[in-house]
Amino acid sequence: MKTLIVYSSLTGNTRKVAEAIHEVFGSAAELFPVETAPSPAAYDFVAVGFWVDRGTADKKAQDFLKTIQGKSVALFATLGAYPDSEHAADSLKNAAAFLDAGNRLVGTFICQGKIDPRLIEQFKSMPGNHPHAVTPERLARYQEAAKHPDDRDFQAAQAVFTDIEKQLLQVAELGKSEVNAACGEQN
Ligand SMILES: Cc1cc2nc3c(=O)[nH]c(=O)nc-3n(C[C@H](O)[C@H](O)[C@H](O)COP(=O)(O)O)c2cc1C
Questions:
Q1: What spacing in Å lies between the alpha carbon of 52 and ligand 1's midpoint?
Q2: Residue 141 lies in a domain
Q3: pTM summary value
C-alpha cells in the first residue's frame, strides 16, 4: 500500500503530528510538507494534515485536498479549540468538503496545538464585545493549547492511524481474494 502523508504547518504543531503518524507506516510511507508534496496520483492512501484556520483547513491544505482523486484519504489537524468541541468537528467536516466525491474518507484525527503568541496578543487588544476578545475561559483554553501537541496526542494519533492501516490492509486482502476467487471461477 503506497502511502503519502502531507502536512501543512505554520508553527510546527501539525508537522509534529505528521511525524508521529509517519512512524506508524515507517518506510512504507512518504512524508512531505505541502509546499513540496508530489501529486497524490501514484499513491493508494493519502493522509493530509492541516492547521485549522477560521474553522476549516488552511488554504495550502485546501488546495492540496482538491487535487486528490479516487483515493482512500484520512485527515488530521491541530487547532486552538478543544478537540471534542463542535468547532473541531465542524473544522474537519469543512476540510473534508474540499475532497472530490470519488475519494473515500477513512478516518480523522484532531488535537490541540499551541496558538501563535502574537495572535493571542492581538486578541488581548480586542474590545470586550469582539468575538475574539480574551475572557478567562478563552485564556484557559489558550493555556491548555500551549501544552499541545504532547506525547498523549502523538500516541492517540498513532492509535487512530494504526487502526486505519489495519482496515486498509484488510480491504486490500479482501480485494485480492475476490480477484482470486473470480479467476478460479473462470478456470
Ligand atoms: C490566522 C490563524 C487562524 C486560526 N484559526 C483558528 C480557528 O479558527 N480555530 C481554532 O481552533 N484555532 C485556530 N488557530 C490556531 C491554530 O489552528 C493552531 O494553533 C494550530 O495548532 C497551528 O498549527 P501549526 O503549528 O501546524 O501551524 C488559528 C491560528 C492562526 C495563526
A1: 5
A2: no
A3: 0.94
